[in-house]
Specification:
- The complex is a heterodimer of chains A (179) and B (456).
- By secondary structure, chain A is of the alpha+beta class.
- Chain A has four helices and six strands, in the order ααββαβαβββ.
- In chain A, strand 1 and strand 2 form a beta hairpin.
- Chain A starts with a helix and ends in a 14-residue tail after the last strand.
- Chain B starts with a helix and ends in a 14-residue tail after the last helix.
- In chain B, strands 13, 14, 15, 16, 17, 18, 19, 20 and 22 form a nine-stranded antiparallel sheet that branches. A four-stranded antiparallel sheet of chain B has the order 6-5-4-7, with no helix packed on it.
- With 456 residues, chain B is of the alpha+beta class.
- The chains are: A alpha+beta (179), B alpha+beta (456).
- Chains A and B meet through strand 1, strand 2 and helix 3 of A and strand 14, helix 9, strand 20, helix 13 and helix 14 of B.
Chain lengths: 179, 456
């Protein structure tokens, strides 16, 4: 596969995933999630780190595995999870999609091992607006995902997601959605 | 009761035990809270383990005032107004870090970590005779207990020990179990809810009733109160405690959860080893015989304080909660409800672990806590929704909040803890005490404490 076609496939997958999540099809989303998923969301912690020249990332606000994610989905389906009953509506724009170089040198520098057979690491930025009954909330984040290519060579399964949400404090009443 | 201004002005109806929804939305009342209530209270601003070294600091708030919580050169903790004494500019706009001094970017006045003015740019050219000693940063009174840093403007009032008085008995059980004490597990979560700060404060003071319905999803999933409809298993029953200065605790009878683990074991040391308190392993439990007295240990074994609210805006939790895999887990957190406006509140929430706990237990405590309480907590997601909905429904102050389910003081036989004791289903007694204290403070804190039951 050429580089461009990998990027195109990855972009298409992320855009499709965004649609599934915006439409609240959470069970369907789970079918594309690995049983070994490592799903994390961290918030910013506004302490400047001189050594690396950037703000530090703060507390993890989500550290989930498959069981936890599945529990979140099941909880919303109980109809007594009031944060999502009535459901909030989201509109997310996924952009700045960067498929990380898969040559061994940059993989070693970047931490994630893209040289592993069948995996691809993708960075993206998400702008998400959530509508509750009385207001809209804005959330932006950077995501670094690892996907596994399916046996057919075209489908992708989420193996790891690490999202860093911008802003401290976060201007959202809760995070009862999946990023 | 006529002496309490909010009662006199009809905000609290002591006959019907109702609170006008105006208390949630009225700008004048909010200003009084900023002017009177927060400055006359001890405000929790940090935990000492957030600022471990001289030069470490975090930026927090006391009411609407930004403060620097700083570890000075001599290791003491200072809480300083984050406002230059020259032209009033904020010295720090970040959340924290390390510095050797605080320098104002505007004209360059600089302050030591203890708040003394130590440098004035071009002093000889600009001033004939500047008295630097009188131009330091506003310095707050500081009190430390269980590693928490409490601050209050430097005004006359009760010491922190006097302020916590009977509450210390319960807080010792929650946060004073080990000789090494607690530490924070990373920086706190911080997020904003569209609701007045008193809504979470009132709920944590200590509404056991709401769990049955607001958290019904957790019951439906079998994660709590597995037998339906068992009001005891769903933790409606317990012992609610109200203490001086408006603090509240909720002690929950473990008979319906983990008690079977220690029943039939007569020896107290062995009981603690069989079922260590939340966040501890068996080898750590010997500390309990140095840190707690007999009555506190008995409460910890059978009926421990699991959540509470320190007036005005700090809440605490230390409780068992199974992990999603059904193993024993624990939630240990402290948080503050920081007013950002009459209709906006920041929640600043720490996860705490025992410093001596093994890494795997610290990890489990962190995971169990953030999965249940916090911005993405399976419980708290719905709490923040409730607070937002109540605030929205209040509009410009229509309607009221009712607290007329009264239990009255009931002290179980052998209960060693101080305070007003309400044993039984969690009714409105404790929460009404929160509102009485709020009314008392807005009346200047000189009004007498009115015992529950003699309101008429």
């Amino acid at each position: 596969m050429s580089c461009d076609s990998i990027t195109a496939r990855c972009s298409r997958h992320l855009h499709h995933e965004a649609l599934i999540l915006d439409e609240g099809r959470w069970q369907e989303w789970l079918t594309n999630v690995s049983r070994d998923i490592d799903y994390r969301v961290a918030a910013e912690n506004l302490r400047w780190e001189d050594g690396v020249g950037r703000w530090s990332t703060g507390p993890e606000i989500v550290r989930d595995d498959y069981l936890t994610l599945e529990t979140r989905v099941r909880r919303i389906e109980t109809k007594t999870a009031w944060a999502e009953n009535p459901r909030t509506r989201t509109r997310r724009i996924v952009g700045n999609i960067l498929v990380e170089d898969s040559d061994a040198e940059s993989a070693a520098a970047g931490g994630h091992d893209n040289s592993r057979e069948g995996f691809v690491t993708i960075q993206s930025s998400v702008m998400l607006v959530r509508y509750t009954s009385d207001r809209q909330e804005l959330l932006t984040c950077n995501r670094r995902d690892v996907f596994a290519w399916g046996a057919d060579g075209t489908s992708l399964q989420l193996v790891a997601r690490s999202a860093i949400v911008d802003g401290e404090p976060l201007a959202i009443r809760n995070l009862s959605i999946i990023l | 009761m006529g002496g309490l201004a909010p009662v006199a002005s009809g905000l609290l109806d002591v006959e019907c035990r109702r609170v006008s929804a105006r208390v949630l939305v009225d700008e004048d009342l909010y200003q009084q809270e900023l002017d009177v209530l927060f400055p006359s209270s001890w405000n929790c601003v940090a935990h000492v383990t957030e600022i471990p070294e001289p030069g470490s600091y975090v930026v927090r708030r006391v009411g609407d005032q930004s403060v620097l919580v700083s570890r000075a050169k001599d290791g003491t903790v200072a809480v300083l107004g984050n406002q230059c004494s020259h032209r009033g500019m904020a010295l720090c706009t970040e959340s924290g870090g390390e510095r050797s001094s605080f320098e104002c970017p505007y004209h360059g006045w600089s302050y030591s970590l203890a708040g003394d003015l130590v440098g004035v740019t071009g002093e000889k050219h600009m001033y004939e005779d500047l008295d630097k000693t009188s131009r330091g940063l506003p310095r707050y009174s500081v009190g430390l207990r269980w590693g928490f840093v409490f601050a209050r403007p430097d005004v006359p009032g009760p010491t922190l020990d006097e302020y916590l008085r009977e509450s210390a008995w319960y807080l010792d059980i929650m946060f004073g179990r080990t000789l090494s004490g607690l530490e924070v597990c990373g920086p706190p979560q911080r997020w904003e809810i569209p609701a007045n700060w008193k809504l979470p404060a009132e709920q944590f003071s200590t509404d056991g009733y709401h769990a049955l319905r607001l958290h019904k999803s957790m019951i439906d999933l079998g994660l709590i109160g597995k037998v339906k409809p068992d009001y005891r298993a769903a933790s409606l029953y317990g012992v609610d405690i109200a203490t001086s200065f408006g603090h509240a605790f909720r002690c929950i009878d473990l008979a319906h959860s983990t008690q079977k683990l220690i029943e039939g074991t007569p020896d107290e040391r062995e009981q603690f080893r069989l079922r260590p308190p939340p966040g501890m392993v068996p080898d750590m439990t010997d500390d309990l015989f140095n840190t707690l007295d007999d009555g506190q240990r008995t409460a910890l074994l059978w009926n421990p304080p699991m959540m509470g609210q320190i007036f005005p805006n700090m809440a605490v939790m230390s409780m068992y909660l199974p992990t999603l895999r059904g193993e024993m887990g624990e939630v240990i957190t402290a948080r503050t409800w920081i007013p950002l406006g009459v209709d906006r509140t920041e929640i600043l929430s720490w996860v705490l672990v025992e410093a001596d706990a093994p890494e795997w237990l610290k990890e489990r405590t962190f995971e169990t806590t953030i999965r249940n309480f916090g911005i993405a907590g399976l419980f708290e997601e719905d709490d923040s929704e409730a607070w937002a909905r109540i605030h929205k429904a209040a509009g410009r102050g229509r309607g009221h909040l009712s607290y007329d389910s009264i239990l009255g003081e009931r002290r179980p036989e052998g209960w060693a803890g101080p305070g007003k004791v309400f044993a039984g289903p969690s009714r409105d007694d404790n929460q009404w005490e929160f509102w009485l204290e709020w009314a008392r403070v807005l009346s200047g804190r000189s009004a007498p404490i009115v015992p529950v039951g003699t309101l008429r």
